[in-house]
Amino acid sequence: MSKNDPIQVAAAFVNRTARNIFLTGKAGTGKTTFLRDLAEHTHKNYMIVAPTGIAALNAGGATIHSQFSLPFGTYIPDSNFRMSADQNQGFYTRNILISHHRLSKVKRLVLRSLELLIIDEVSMLRADILDAIDLRLKSAKNIWDQPFGGVQLLFIGDLFQLPPIVKDHERSLMHRYYPNANFFNSLALKQSGLIYVELTKIYRQSDDVFIDVLNNLRQNRITAADREILNSHYLPEEEHPEGVITLATHNRLVDDINQNSLAELEGESHFYRAKIEGDFSESMYPCSREIELKIGAQVMFIRNDSSQDKRYYNGKLAKVVGLEEDEITVVLEGEEDEFLVPKETWENAKYTVEDDSLSPQLDVVGTFQQFPLKLAWAVTIHKSQGLTFDRAVIDVGRAFAPGQVYVALSRLRSLDGLILRTPVPLSAVQSDPDIVHFSEEKRKSANHVQDLKTGQKQYMQLLLNEAFDLMPIARLVGKSIERWPRPLPFDVERVAKWPDEWVSKVGELIQIGARFRSQLNSLLNASEEDQLFERLTKGVEYFESELKTILVSLFGFRADLAAFSGTKKMINELDELDHEFMQKWRRIDEIIHRCEALLAGKVIEKNTKSEKAITNWRIEQITAQKARAAEDKALRTGKRVRSKSKARGGKKVSTFEETFSLYEEGLSIAQIAEKRELTETTIVGHLARGISIERVDFMKLLPPAKAEEILRSYKGQDGLSDWRKDVDNAFSYQELRLALAHIKLKK
C-alpha cells in the first residue's frame, strides 16, 4: 500500500480495520469508481444505502429510509423526551421507532449479517437520521455497548455539494441536540470517531486555473481575482450559442426553459410512456414516466450505455432526428451518424439473505423501463450532480444553498466551456463555514500511517472477541424463550425439554468463550503468534463442533414444532436463531484466514468456499430433520397436533388456499410471508404448487423480461444448484424454483 495514494489508504482502512471512514474529494476525483471496486472485492458483508431514491439507484443500493424502516421526519435522540400534541406529526423518538416502526424479519436478518455499511452521497445525510441508524443497528445486533452495533461505516461524498434538507418547523428542536444538520454532528459518530481520507487527483478537469478557482470556492477563500475570472465568462442571453445546456437553481425555471423550447419546435409531439413493474415508487423514477419529444428536441442521456458499445454516458447531449411509435433516433453531440436509442431498465432492489447464503444480497423488487432521455435545454443544479459537460450556460444569480455554485461550476471540464447567464454575486459563493472548519480540522489531524497500524491491531482483537462471544446470541435466545408459553404445551417430552437444553448449552459456551478470548488476547499482546494460531486452530475445531450440535438440535426442534398448531411465531423466531448461529459459525470458520492475512500484511480474500460448505451442511441437516419428524409416530399422537386446515369465514381453508388468496389480492411474496407469519421459502413452495395446478401465473410473479430470461436460461439442468451455477448466481433459488414449476407444467 502506498501511503501517498488515498485510494489505497481508504481501501486499507475499510478492509484491514474496523474504523469508520469518510472518503471525500472534489467532483471528478473518482469516489464512484472507488465504491464500485470496493463492492466487488471486499471480504466483508456489506450493504450500500443512500439518502434519496435516485442516489440509491446510481450507487446500486437501497434508500436509507426503506432499508432501515425509518419514518419520514426528525429523530429525537433523547429517550426522556416527551412530545407535545403538535409534535406528534413529523417527530419520533427511540421508543416510537422501536415500538411502532418495527423491522421485518428479512431486514433484521440483513442487519445482523452486516459488517460494513456504505452510505453514498453523504452530504445529504442528516445527523439525526444517522443516529436513528445507530439505534437500528444496535437493536438488530443486540449489541448496545458499541456505536452502530459494532458495524463499520464508510461515508462517501463531498460535503461542499448538496446539503441536507431541514424544514423550518424541525430546525429549533434539532438545534437542541445538534449544532447543525450535517452528518458529522451525529452523537453516535462523535463517540466512535472517523478516519478522514480525501481524494485529490481530479480526473474531470485539467485546466489549472479553473481547478484553483474551484478549490478556493470550496474553502471559502474566493478572491476578487477569482470572481473576475468567472465573471469574464458572462454573456447576455441574446448572445448564448444554440444547443448549450443551462444549469439553473430552481425547478420552475428549468421547466419553463424546456417546455418553451419544445413548444417553439414545429411538428407534432410524440409521447413515450415508461413500463413499470413491481415495487418502484414515484420518488425513485430516474426520468419522467411519460416523455414528450419532437423532432429537433435537445435531450440528455441520464444513464451510461450498458452495452459493450459505450456510445453514450450520463450527461451526454444529443439532438432528436427521428421519432416512431416505439423508436427514438438521435445524433449524439460531436458526432454525425444517427443513433437508435435503446430502452434501459432500472431496478429497485432490496437487501435480503437467501437460504443458500450468509451474505446480504440485492433482490430486485421492481423495474422501470424507459428511453434513458430527458429534455435538456436546461437542468437543475441538483439533478446535474455527477454529470460532466463540455459547455454549459450557468445561472446562479438566485443560488439559495451553500455549495450550489460549486456544484454547477464543477460539472464543466474547463473554463473554456463556461457561459454565465448572470454575473456571480458575492453572496452566492459562500460555503458552509461549519463544513470548512470540519474539513480543515480533519485534514490537519490526519495521521494515516499510525491510525492504520493501530486500527489493524484493534481489528484483529475485534475479530477474536467477536468470533467467540456468544452473548448477543444468548440475549436473542432469552428474548425468544420469554415469549413462549412455559411450560411448552406439547405432549412430547423431547420437544418440551429442548429450549432449556439450549439455554444451558449456550450459557456454558459463553463462559468457555470468555476464558478463551482472554487467552487469545494475551497471546496477541505478547506477539506469540505461533502459540496464538495453535490455540486458535483447536478453539475453532471445538466451537464449530459445539455449534453444529446446537444447530442440529434447533433444526430438529423446528421440524417437530411444524407438527403442532399455534407454532408459527415460534418457528419464525427459530428461523432468526438459525441465522444467528450460522453467522457465528461463519465468523469462527473465517477467523484463522482473516488473522493470518492481517499479520502477513496480505489482502483478505473473500472465502466463498467456506460459506458454501457451511450452507450446504445446513441444507442437508434440515432435510434430514424434516424427514425424521415426518416418520416420528410420537408427533402424530401428541397433543395440539397441527390441523391441515383452519377455519376462515366458517369454511375449512387449506394453507395453500390462504396463500393463493393473498396472492390474488396482489400481495408480494414478502408481504404474504409477513402476513401469514411464515418464511418466504414456505410461501414460494405454496406458489410453486399453485403454478403446477394453474392457480398462479408464473409470468405475473416476476417482471416479464426477467421471467423470460430465467426460462431461456434453463438447459435441462439436474437441479436448482446446477442451474444457479450455470447462470453465475444471477437468479435466486426462489425464482428458479418457481420457474421450474412453470416449466414442468408446460411439459
Automatic annotation (TrEMBL):
This is AAA family ATPase. GO terms for molecular function: DNA helicase activity. CDD domains: SF1_C_RecD. Gene3D superfamilies: P-loop containing nucleotide triphosphate hydrolases (3.40.50.300). Residues 17-182 form the AAA+ ATPase domain. PANTHER family: ATP-DEPENDENT DNA HELICASE. SUPFAM superfamilies: P-loop containing nucleoside triphosphate hydrolases (SSF52540). One of its GO terms (biological process) is DNA repair. It comes from Phaeocystidibacter luteus.
